Fold each of these.
Amino acid sequence: MNKQKDLSQPLGAIVTFLVPALTIYVAFTAYPVVRTIYNSFHEVLPGHPNEFLGLQNYVTLYNDKYFWGSVKNTLTWALTAPFFEQFFAILLALALYARIPGARFFRIVWFTPVLMSFVVVGIIWMWIFNYDWGALNVILRAIGLENLAMSWLGDPSIALPALILVTTWMWTGFNMVVLLAALHSLPSEVLEASELDNCNWPKKLWFVIIPMIRPTILNLIVLSFVGKMKIFDLVWIMTKGGPLWSTETVSTYVYKRAFEWNSFDLGYPCSIASVWFVIVLAGVLLLTFIFRQRDKLEY
Amino acid sequence: MASFSRSWKHVLLIFVLTIYTAYTAGPLFWVALMSLRTTTEIAHNPYALPETLHLWKFSEAWVNSNYSVYFANSVKVVLSAVAIITLVGGMAAHCFARYRFPLRKVLYFTIFSTIIFPPQITIIALFQILVEYGLYNSLVGLMLSYVAFQLPITVYILESFFARIPADLYDAARMDGYSEWQIFWKVSMPVALPALSTTIILNTILLWNEFLYAVVLITDESKRTLPLGIQKFMGDQLEDIGMISTGLMIAIIPVVIIYVFFSERLIQGMTAGAIK
């Protein structure tokens, strides 16, 4: 093999190239992960030696209704938002794929939100959702739908959907760009053939286009799922988990228990983080597995 | 008749797309307008165009509300973190792509899988560790955390690029008597410039916007980065919509300037992790 020649094994060089990255990785990623898991079995108070608790933190966690509430909110987010994003992103990508005038301009503008900090986006949308002068209520009142105007972030049953709307606003353009690139890489003959076969649009979309870009769609869904499972910044800026815990995510709850509550114990939040870590990994593996299975069945 | 209905559909489509464009860009445009108006004017009518451009608000924010400090901190942390990530990540990626050694796959997979870790799994212990190292509440500590945070995705993107460089290039370099370090520096890195610019852009934007690590690891006002500075400013001056908007624009403007000039590169960089 030609490759073999290239691959001499200069041990000194290999070590030199790897040591900086591995040092940083061990010191700031691997060691913290191990220490978090260690902490989760202890009571960790500043200025005290760690006290071994066994599984007590996990038992507390099992009975912690705020934790389970935050799990429910985060899962709701992670299991709905990716599909909203994909739905709108596919429609928009198809519109641009149809060679609309100004497609380049549309694409660039739609992508912009994802370049903004969650802090920026969060503050802007807090104002848009403002009851008195926020754009949403102003528009609703202007078109005669006064009774729909409400305190979007103040109502526990509306606040979470409102935040999901914000992440959809932010990420749809990003997904659209990736899908559009996937569409452009398709052989044009297939699409032209389906055109000749007199397929109508919904059929063409469902039976021809979506199956062909399915790997990209699935990849984007997993990516979006992971992003929503981690979400912190947007909630922290807009609602701090309120009203009445209705937008509390696991990330914000961990942060509160570690740095805001007066318990000062770092062990318990570490046990939440450890459990969540396992759930996120399991979720990603499960999604990948399901998607792979379906691929095998259909092809 | 058919062409009439087709062009009618076309117009409708463009109309819908224009509405969607207003929906995506409108909020950002609105903040840009408010950043030039005073809070009193905004309270009077939040959606009016600026009557006079109150550009003094930017110098006011810059000087009196400490935005110059936040901005400088963000620039320092982001630039040094990105420089280190690019070099260290490039070295590791080159090593994974071009050499065969024991544990190569295990090490690569370990680093790669970190991409999906939720940050909570490290952040509490990272806080403890930085306190112990004396790096808590310091820009160096934050910068090093950022390096560790972005290293996996950088190694992932660069490795796949380095692995595709033809072996002949390396053979030629070896025949010319290049050392391994020279090969990395004079073959891999220059050839990989497109991939390097992709990771540089991705890391710069993500770290410029980063908030969670900053809020956990920084307490001093003089060490806040822009997102943290804005969040604290809003906490103190909740009603001062005008000045908050000005602060938001200070964070947005550099990104928009880069985006105007390098929109395709930026889009490509941001989506690099999503395209396989």
Amino acid sequence: MNTRRQTLAALLGAPWALRGAEDIVKHPRELKFAPRTFTPPRAADFRHQLSNGATAFLVEDHDFPLINLAVTVRTGEFVEPPEKAGLAQLTGSQIRAGGTTARQPLDFDEAADFLAAGISSGIADVSGSAGLNCLSKDMDAGLALFVEMLRTPGFDAERLQLAKSQLLQSLERRNDSTASIEQREWGRLLRGTSHFSTRQATKGSVESIAREDLAQFHARYYFPANFVFAVSGDFKTAEMLARLEKAFGNWPSPRIAPPQVPKPNFTPKPGVYLVHKSGVNQGRVRMGHLGVMISNPDHLAISLMNSILGGGAFTSRITERVRSDEGLAYSAGSMFMPGTYYEGTFTAAFQSKSETVAQAVAIIFEEIDRIRAQRVKPEELETAKARAIEALPTRFATAASRAGQFASDFYTRLPEDYWQKYAERIRAVTLEEIQRVAQKYLRPEQMVVLAVGDADAILKGNPDKPQFKLEKWAGGAGVVRIPLPDPLTMVYPAG
Amino acid sequence: MGALAAWAQQVPVREVTLDNGMKFLLVQRKGAPNIAAGWVAKVGSVHERPGITGTAHLFEHMMFKGTQTIGSRNIEEDLRINVQLDQVKAELRKEEQELARKLRLGLIANAKDPAVRSERHRQLLAEFDKLNARQKELLVKNEFDRIYTSAGASGLNAGTAHDFTIYFIQVPANKLELWFWMESDRLLNPVFREFYSERDVVQEERRLRVDSTPTGKQREEFDAMFWKSSPYGWPVIGWPSDLEGITREEATAFFGTYYAPNNLAACLVGDFDEEQAVAWARKYFGRLRRGAQEPEPVRTVEEAQHGERRLIAHAETVPTVVIRHHTVADGHKDDYPLSVMAYLLSGRTGRLYKSLVLEQQLANSASADQNTYKYEGFFQLSAVAKPGKTLDAVEQALYQEIEKLQKELAPERELQKIKNQLAASKYRRLQSDFFLMQQLLVAEASRGWQAINTDPPLLDAVTAEDVQRVARQYFPREGRNVLHLLPKTGGGERRGTGGGL
């Protein structure tokens, strides 16, 4: 401790130190800054319609001789038949890995690698994606390869066999990490077991997937009217549009309405759920309930409220108490994500040694109660607002992030003026509204608490703090134990 | 060609060194809304010793706890309590040492059980809690973060590695002076508040990253086996018993040696006035006093290996084989051919995938890397066995690929493919200001930032003969270190007929 004070004393004696130091303000709040104004760019200024119906956002950036082209595809895991769980994922990866009708997989890969072109494809829960990144001098060759892949994938049988073997190997290990168990069980507790978002591939579903299934899936969803393009980099917009027309223009699109993402039909059951996993000394916890849609006019006030509660990292209450005050976790916080297709969720989460899981759960319940019962401090709201507003320029900082944001907003049908009105709407939120939305949208009586870890040690708690017990929030049913399912069949042993 | 394409040949960095030895690296990128700003302390776990492993990383956490100005309502009282806390902690340590002795002799079963504590131990704990509670009342919690966040800065964070500790953030382009104020203040007037609860946070981080992951403990075991004498053998996050024992005094001494300006370098990438930045650097960081002594380079080198080593471990994971050989440090002339050799072996069209995964169908994935640190380096091959194939068969197939490189020169076109990719990556790695700032600081901590400009031509000059030479030189049988991870079924509640594996 003394070292530091001596350093300061010695420093003050040094003439060069005095000279610099005298006009340094005592506290950073006294610093003055030039004002910065930021107006988010308008997507419409960068939007183009191709003759085949596809929408493209083009943002030029001539700093480096690179082109980045990203395609979002209107498809997703939600369209796959339940008995073929894994089909969407395999189709997405095999579009890239399975060669084309004109080229063996290895020939295609060698051609892409020799060009130093990054070419990718995948399908996630509610969208598909494909990408090309290459030097601008190689644009024609790169784009030709990319279109060949997207339009005429080969779905090579051997590559499919390999991908199935890799997928089955990963299914076999799905109970290995507490993180993956936690994610899976959390989905099941909040969305039920029949919604696509919690559907699990099994040995049976993967083995039933044939090459023909992939080809049909591709034919059904991959055509230009289902594509949203985000292109950025070293090109002239008019020339790039001509290139895209030439590359995709003669690819006809059937007149089929894009598929609708189904909503879950499930009411979560509040309570405490525990999954036992031996050999780990830390429990992973998620706790929360269903939330709101992005169309809910309160969603920005909710976002600010959550930023104060647990979403604002070190400037939020849950992180401050669970991590900095008590040293109970490395990461602790909350998310209140509005949903695009169906209501989102409120989730608080942390990881703590088995003994202190219950104590950290108690702190989070306390903080939820506090933000509902008392108004937040004006400076807390100001920090949350600054955080939200000042993050806007970052969202649009590079050409690639601008093009990507435009495409993503278009894909999810976000209102066109959303970002233009964003700062104004954030500024308008009051202290009263924060408390109102906390009371309306945080629902402690509906909380689902999930803990994954060494069950006995978690239930035993901390001998130094016997007042904290997980049972307290379990209600009449007591703590519900969830066994691990058979990893290949996903059959849960009967309790 | 792009406006900054020439950058890929020569990233234009202005280097300014202050009188106290602190170096500034300035890179202009006009138009960016944020400035990527960071600094590096040339210290990592490699500078620790047994007993204080994990200190460099713990330190990184402590640097966010505020200063004499930031973080407390009453600095005099705050510092007084810190001294008292250290005194109580020293007394507590005696009690803990006594319990450790009893545990060693088997007189107690659990040193953490409250029932085994002496009356004095209990009193000290109560006193410790009371002092902490009093200090908490004085705290302005996480004020360091709050000031940055309110100003619209984002991504405040830091990272610790074997050779360096790096601190970074993105600040709005109009608020660069705030960064100078904040970062110089935490170097000039740091207060290591909440030291003991932060040690607990690091213990949780260790549980999160190592203890409670499927292969964390086994990979730590492999590292400990691989390094015989070098300090690269202990984990950056430290051994748990060291983490429990590190004192604030030890941390303060560490700071005095390794956080002196002559051991630091800062970097700004973005849209700023260069002369203004240099003036602020002098004004704010010029206040730091050069360390009394230059930090010593690491003395202990890795002693030669005299026999093959094998670790057979069971873990809840896919069947995996890893082979490691000691090679060379970052920037050694053989680092370049070894890197090209790793590229030849890796990726979708790399030799390992083609041979082990596609042709022989022994593995579901395979890759190779040349990893270098400041003082040492290693080459690693790894593969995941296909169900039904043995790890021994996969291991042999990996050796065969090395042998092929020893016997036959790599064809020209295969080498050209690697060089085309390296040429494109020269641009790709410069696209993000934030990533560029980090790369410059990491290079500076090892051999100097100029490596970012001097490495690409050296990689481009590698010949097939160079690759053959290093393949022959660095992979002797007695230098092998082999890890077999064999799958085991995890414990869970699986009543009924649950299908074990």
